[in-house]
Structures are given as structure tokens and as C-alpha cells.
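Morning!

This is the sequence you dropped in the shared folder:
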Amino acid sequence: MEFIWKGIKTLLIENEIIRIEILAGKGTDIVEFLYKPYDVDFMWRSPIPVYNPYNFITTAEGKLGNFIDYYPGGWQEIFPNGGGICEYKGAVLGLHGEISLLPWEYKILEDTKEKVSIKFSVRTYRTPFLVEKIISMEERKPFITIEEKITNLGGESMEFIWGHHPAIGKPFLSSDCKIKIKKAKVKVVEGDGISYTNLKQTEGEWPFVEGKNGKKVDISKVPSENDKVSDVIFLSEIEEGKYEIENKKLKLSFYMEFPVDIFKYIWFWRIAKGSFNYPWYGRNYNIALEPFSSLPNLSEAIKRRDALVLNPGKSLKCEIIAGVRRI
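The structure's back. C-alpha cells below.
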């Protein structure tokens, strides 16, 4: 189904089990990932409403760029910068890069009872990249497949950060949830705005981190809605390109599978009404487990030598699976 929502070209694809809503006119954001038998949506909805970036102008450009002004929650693709604003080869790249604020072209490749496939594409405007992806859903399958390709259209080598930013919220998210990740190293850093936390800014082995009281905290356990915590956590040396968030009460889980040779990190963002001042003002309850190629941001990633690079005319491909499982 194709329609216009708040001035944004929007696509709805579904089968008997799941329904996915995609904002083709704004970054291909996935703003709904609904498990139909339980009427449970996994995607978090930000307190910032959906706005069409081309019909709505904010009062002033943010010091990190405009990503937050147009961030409705859900799942964004992040490219070619991840994290804070930086300058690269004379171009200023704002928070989380370019493509999440751009309208994408799309073409329906297949629309049958057995399978739906849509090809999306976009060219970046401050860097010379072409991003293409095919999102597919099959009959009676509780997952989507995303086949992606990044191409350097420029005449020189180009570095970049590539990531996916799915934020999970209510009604699925609660303290009944537990995160399953096989093995990783953990680093805790300062959260958004003025953040409250029960963790020390330190390093550990998944899932344990030292708490402020000196005791180990199991960060695989999702905090309750009113725990007043806010953290940004980076997972590295990931053993397996997969994670799963289980809600034991609902007997339901959301999972993602990705190539760990490309997405070598998971950025773990968790807020349980513990981030104050701009931009969240104590309102948020969400987590995000984000496969990323690098640590933030592009200029720093180049110095650390963890940025990806493509020579002129070369491409990089990957496949991602995201879905729902009964437990």
C-alpha cells in the first residue's frame, strides 16, 4: 500500500504475521513493526512528532545538525556519519549523517501473495555515495530481509560510518525484557543531556558493568520505566552478528541479524526517563541496539582507523534480517 502521511510518501507492507510502515519520503524510517497476532508494535515513538523536513522549518539549526528535530523514533539508517557533527573533506556532516533526512526513490519489484519486495535508493548530497536497498517480506514469515549496497560515485577514496538505529519502546518494552547477546566487550560513556545513571563510566564484559555502588550491574536486564537512568554503551569484539530482546511476560522477542565483519559494534542506547534538559526532558522510555561499522564520529573513526572506506566506483554489500519470535 502506498499513501501520503503528513506530506511524506509512505509504504505499508504486511503478511499474515507482521506489518511494516516505511517513510520513503523521509529516510526510509521504519516507524511501525507490528506483530499482528498480539497487536504489539516494537518501534518506539519519540515525543517529537513526525514532520516532513521539507514542509517544516525549526527555529534554529541545532549544534549537532537537524537529526533530532525530525526524529520520530522508530528505525533509521545512518550514513555516512554516525554520532556527533564533524567535518570531512570540507563538508560538514551533522549528527548521524545525511540519508535519514533525505527522500528516497523506490520501485516495487514484486507484489504477490507469496512475496513483496521494494527497492529503495538515494544519493547523498554532501558526499558522493549511492545507497540502495531491497526490503522483502514473504508469506507467513515473521521477519523482513534487507539487502543493501553502498557505492562510491566519486573520483577519490571515501571513508564512512554505516549503521542502523532501531529504537524499541512500549508496549513491547518493559522490565520483563532481557537482551540476549552472545559475547562482547562493553564500554559505558556519558548519556544524553543531563543524565542520571546507576553505572560507572567504565569497561566490562557483557553483560556486567560496575555500578556506582561498586556492585556489578547486569545490563542485559531492561530497566523499568521509572528507574531514572540514561546511558550510552558501546559493545565491541562481538562474537556473533545477532541480538534478541525477549519479553518473558509477553512470550515474544524482537531480533536482528547482521554481518559482523561490516557492523563490528553495537551501540546500546537506553533511557528510562533519566535524561533531562534538551532534547528529552525526562520523557523517554526506550532502548536501541544499533549495529554500526565504527565508533562515533567519522573524523574520529578515521583517526582510530575503524572507518570503512571505498575506492572510486567500488561497492559494499550486506544483508540484514529483523523479525519476531515467540518464546
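Headline: The mean pLDDT is 95.

More detail when I'm at my desk.
O.
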